[in-house]
Every structure is written in structure tokens, then in C-alpha cells.
Write a structure and sequence with these properties.
Blueprint: H1 3-13, H2 19-27, H3 32-52, H4 58-76, E1 88-94, H5 102-113, E2 116-120, H6 127-137, E3 141-145, H7 149-164, E4 171-174, H8 180-187, E5 195-198, H9 201-212
Helix pairs in contact: 1-2, 1-3, 1-4, 2-4, 3-4, 5-9, 6-7
The structure holds CO-5-methoxybenzimidazolylcobamide (B1M).
CO-5-methoxybenzimidazolylcobamide (B1M) is lined by residues 44-45, 47-48, 51-52, 58, 61-62, 64-65, 92, 97-104, 106-107, 143-145, 147-149, 172, 174-176, 198, 200-201, 204.
Domain B12-binding: 87-213
Organism: Paenibacillus zeirhizosphaerae
Function: Catalyzes the transfer of a methyl group from methyl-cobalamin to homocysteine, yielding enzyme-bound cob(I)alamin and methionine. Subsequently, remethylates the cofactor using methyltetrahydrofolate.
């Protein structure tokens, strides 16, 4: 197998044997983010496909998730960090009912490496908790992540609850369950502030930078 194929295979097979040396070899050719977005994400796509076809069980997908997390943790130290002062404060949460956090945590890494203070509320976060954190932290942006179809609906509910609480800070949403169109047509009308869709972590950073400027 080529190096790229091996990297994808670690994720698909949920195996870590040889992972770190291969990640280090990949770092001589690619940036940390290119390794994540390229071979590691390709592996995750394949995991999603196999899971969908009932060829993998949840326990196996968890092992794949572990490989992804270990890889991201290892690659993080090699990512470029900007030395700027704090550009803004961003709350991040995976919405109520959803446990997927690899994407959200990647967004945290990218944003915090680029001058943002992140308040990561974790997974399955109910709207009340987001409202409370927003008030405590006086955050500039509220970031919501969700991967399940029902999480897209939960984002609508969350936006409604934030609005009812009198909050109109910009919301940034992302995750495989969403599209730009859904964000525009279904979430935005329920909220008084801006609602922005980020297709990936770098897009999230671009949007945050635009908002802060
Ligand atoms: Co789940 N799962 N899962 N899963 N899982 C999906 C999402 C699924 C598509 C797989 C499939 O069937 N093909 C499917 C959803 C179906 C649907 O609703 N349409 C699914 C399902 C069904 C489930 C369960 C219901 C399975 C079950 O129990 N029967 C269950 C749900 C439990 C729950 O949430 N209540 C479940 C559980 C799990 C695990 C726990 C085993 C594990 C998650 C581990 C973890 O996160 N700690 C897991 C995994 C790993 C996946 C897949 C395979 C991979 C997700 C992932 O980590 N991708 C996934 C299939 C797939 O996506 N191909 C699947 C890598 C990650 C870096 O990408 O999160 O998309 P992603 O994030 C990207 C962008 O989306 C964006 O930036 C990131 C980086 O570029 N982004 C943002 C994300 N959030 C953002 C926020 C932003 C900005 C950008 O601003 C705030």
C-alpha cells in the first residue's frame, strides 16, 4: 500500500500499529491539515459507507474514531499557530442528541491555533446550556455542530431558543447533516442574528475572521 492508502486503512480498520511513524512520514510531504482532510478523511468516508451498509458495528466505528482522534492529537503540534492576541471568543457545541465530536474538536484546534478563545461545551448540549454559557462568557460567536439528520432539526430548535432568550450573536453551523441551503432556508428565518454555514474547519476560520473584522 502507498503511504496515503495506509493512512486511510488505519482509520478504516481502527488500528494504530504503525500509525505515528506513518503520520511523521506524511508530514515530510504534506501539511497536518492536508493529511487530515486527505487520507484520514477518505478513511472516515469509507467507515461511514461501511457502517451504512451494516458492514461495521458501532464498536468498530468507535475504534476508527479513536484513530482519527489520536492522529489529530499527534498532528496538532505541527500546525501553524498565530501569535496574535485574542481575536474573539467562540462557543462550540455539538447539539442536543448528537455525540459526534471529531469535527467540532477539529474546528476548536483550528480556531484556537488562530487566535480565538474557545469555550467547548462538548456533546449533546441542550439549548439552555448554550444560553447560559453565552451569558457567562459574553462570546462573540456561537458555533453549533451536528452530524445526524435530526441534529439539523435540533439546530432550528436551538436557534429558536436563543432568539427567545433575546440572543442575536452570530451563529456558525457545520457538520455533515447540514447544507448551505438548509441553513439559509430553515435556520436563518428562525433567528434574528446572522447564521453562517461552514463546510469545514478552515471555512469556519475564514468566517470567524470575516465576522471579527
Ligand atoms: Co455516527 N453516524 N452514529 N458515529 N458516524 C454518521 C454521522 C453517519 C452518516 C454514518 C452512516 O450511517 N453513514 C450516520 C448519520 C445518519 C443520519 O442521521 N443521516 C451516523 C449514525 C446513524 C450514528 C448512530 C445513530 C449509530 C447508532 O448508534 N446506531 C450513533 C449516533 C449517536 C448519537 O449521536 N446520538 C453514531 C455514533 C457514532 C460513533 C460514536 C461510533 C462515532 C463518533 C465518535 C465521535 O465523534 N467521538 C461515529 C462516527 C465516527 C461516524 C462517521 C463514520 C464519521 C464522523 C466523523 O468523525 N467524521 C459518520 C459518517 C461520515 O461522516 N462519513 C457517522 C470526521 C470529521 C472530521 O468530519 O464531523 O463532518 P465532520 O466535521 C467536518 C465538517 O463537517 C465540519 O468541519 C469538520 C472538519 O472539516 N464541521 C464544522 C463539523 N462541525 C462543524 C462546526 C462548525 C464548522 C464546521 O462551526 C461551528
Amino acid at each position: 500500500l502507498t503511504l496515503e492508502e495506509r493512512l486511510a486503512t488505519y482509520v478504516v480498520e481502527g488500528s494504530k500499529e504503525g500509525l505515528i511513524p506513518d503520520l511523521d512520514e506524511a508530514l515530510t510531504k504534506y501539511s497536518p491539515l492536508a493529511i487530515i482532510n486527505g487520507p484520514l478523511m477518505a478513511g472516515m468516508e469509507e467507515v461511514g459507507r461501511l457502517f451504512n451498509n451494516n458492514e461495521l458495528i458501532v464498536a468498530e466505528v468507535l475504534q476508527s474514531a479513536e484513530v482519527m482522534k489520536t492522529s489529530v492529537a499527534h498532528l496538532e503540534q505541527f500546525m501553524e499557530k498565530s501569535e496574535t492576541s485574542v481575536k474573539g471568543k467562540i462557543i462550540l457545541a455539538t447539539v442536543k442528541g448528537d455525540v459526534h465530536d471529531i469535527g467540532k474538536n477539529l474546528v476548536e484546534i483550528i480556531l484556537s491555533n488562530n487566535g480565538y478563545r474557545i469555550i467547548n461545551l462538548g456533546i449533546k448540549v441542550p439549548p439552555e446550556r448554550i444560553i447560559e454559557a453565552y451569558r457567562e462568557e459574553k462570546a462573540d460567536v456561537i458555533g453549533l455542530s451536528g452530524l445526524l439528520v435530526k441534529s439539523a432539526q435540533q439546530m432550528i430548535i436551538t436557534a429558536q431558543d436563543l432568539k427567545t432568550a433575546g440572543i442575536d450573536a452570530p451563529i456558525m453551523v457545520g457538520g455533515a447533516a447540514l447544507t448551505r441551503k438548509f441553513t439559509k432556508n430553515r435556520i436563518r428565518p428562525e433567528y434574528d442574528g446572522l447564521v453562517l454555514y461552514a463546510k469545514d474547519a478552515m471555512d469556519g476560520l475564514d468566517l470567524a475572521n470575516k465576522l471579527m473584522n
